[in-house]
Amino acid sequence: MTATRVDADVIRRLPKAVLHDHLDGGLRPATVIELAAEVGHTLPTTDPDELAAWYFEAANSGDLVRYIATFEHTLAVMQTREGLLRTAEEYVLDLAADGVVYGEVRYAPELNTQGGLALAEVVETVQEGLAAGMAKVAAAGTPVRVGTLLCGMRMFDRVREAADLAVAFRDAGVVGFDIAGAEAGFPAADHLAAFEHLRRESVPFTIHAGEADGLSSIHQALQICGAQRIGHGVRITDDIVDGKLGRLAGWVRDRRIALEMCPTSNLQTGAATSIAEHPITALKDLGFRVTLNTDNRLVSGTTMTREMSLLVEQAGWTVEDLRTVTVNALKSAFIPFDERKALIEDVVLPGYAV
């Protein structure tokens, strides 16, 4: 492929894949406002544009804990069946509008039970909403395959329950597992029993690591807990000096462990200093299996199109680079091999022949 000029229209049309995207971080501002009015929750503002700006500014603190605190308002409107159905369906519609052909959406069911829903009811409702969205976009000629990752919150004590749910719903749309929340001070190995259970049941999982904590967090996620992918993982660069890989960095690259990288989000939480200097580019050039993701579309004010555009404009990425990270994502998706292969060969590669 020659180095095609990459403008906004080209990027918008490219087929995309996203592995790291939180349901409760990607609501439409107008939806948050409407649902908040229905449940009597007070927001910082009831103007959609102002609310979107408030989220971006509030999250732009350089601190992961403050970033997470912005989820108070989205979670407040996701405690009812109606709220979950709507946000899950709209999630799929928004992916389709962004050119995404495969997405994995993650959320922690324990955070959606304040309105009286049981954990299993939360999962069933979200899956129903996602299915409705997938049916709509397929009928519109822009199909999106969406798999669900259930999260346990590493600061709390219900991680094993979430893992049990992932096993129970593995044939009903749930494709994997994750732990999320404040990373520093809450080591993944505290929940080793949950990960051992998932391994026994052959359920794949990723772990947030190397975002707000260092190499020890990544090492623990991989070598103690057994994660198949790493959420963020930007701190793996601490194990690379002058292009020479340390043992952990070498393990990650050589075993083709996908890094779910989220440039805009990493700037907001202080895990990176700029798009131009974000580790995703250097790691890509060193042969790591990097993937490009949004993390939280509302909170970070972003889309996959925007993330791609930023890398093109500020880090010199080409269409071939964008194709590489998209294929990387599908190679590491938590769905069967034949489905991944078909998406790569029948959808992504033809879509990048621009």
Quick overview of this protein structure:
The chain has helices spanning 8-13, 29-39, 48-59, 64-69, 72-76, 81-97, 119-139, 159-168, 192-200, 215-224, 247-254, 263-269, 279-285, 304-315, 319-331, 337-351, and strands spanning 16-22, 100-107, 145-153, 174-180, 206-209, 229-232, 240-241, 244-245, 258-261, 290-292. It is of the alpha/beta class and 354 residues long. The N and C termini lie close together (9 Å).
3D architecture notes:
Belongs to the metallo-dependent hydrolases superfamily. Adenosine and AMP deaminases family. Adenosine deaminase subfamily. The record marks 232 as: Important for catalytic activity. The protein is of the alpha/beta class and 354 residues long. The chain is 48% helix and 14% strand. It contains 16 helices and ten strands. The protein has a four-stranded parallel sheet, with helices on both faces. Strands 5-6-9-10 form a four-stranded parallel sheet. A two-stranded antiparallel sheet has the order 7-8. The model has no long low-confidence stretch (mean pLDDT 94).
* Number of domain modules: 1
CATH homologous superfamily? Metal-dependent hydrolases
* CATH architecture verdict: Alpha-Beta Barrel
Biggest sheet descriptor: 4 strands, parallel
Number of helices: 16
CATH topology, what is it called?
TIM Barrel
**What distance lies between the first and last C-alpha atoms, to the nearest angstrom?**
9 Å
Beta percentage is: 5-15%
> What's the count of strands?
10
Please identify the structural class as seen in this structure.
alpha/beta
Catalytic activity: adenosine + H2O + H(+) = inosine + NH4(+); 2'-deoxyadenosine + H2O + H(+) = 2'-deoxyinosine + NH4(+)
Site (Important for catalytic activity): 232
Binding site for Zn(2+): 20, 22, 208, 295
Protein name: Adenosine deaminase
